[in-house]
Amino acid sequence: MKNKLKSDIKKQKITFSIFGLGNVGDVNDSLLSPTYDVVKEFFKHKFEVVVHDPYILDDNKLPKNVLLTNNLDSALSDADLIFISTDHKIYSKLNSNSFSSAKKPLLIFDGRNILDRTKFKNHVIKTIGI
Hints:
Blueprint: H1 2-11, E1 15-19, H2 35-44, E2 48-52, E3 67-69, H3 72-76, E4 81-84, H4 89-92, E5 107-110, E6 126-129
Parallel strand pairs: 1-2, 1-4, 2-3, 4-5, 5-6
């Protein structure tokens, strides 16, 4: 049963959208960014990855098949999970309406603990802070 579940998961196309490539919030510096490690881990499991960052528009350290975008709707369009990796102020202002372009319910992992969970409590979006 456990192996069948793993097999079924591997057959599905799962897309992770990582919010933030900068190493700290509100800058365009990706040196020492934790996002590179997160991307590497997701790629080990053959997941598709999209990175959103409003300050970094190009990065040659990301694998070629990772979409880097500054358009939030593009980052959300096929996402199954949102991983907040950088504490850009724009991310702290997100609420359930910010995710209206998502095609399916999202799980959000708030790796910087910047979301105001009260803005999500009556919605299908789940937030997990560290």
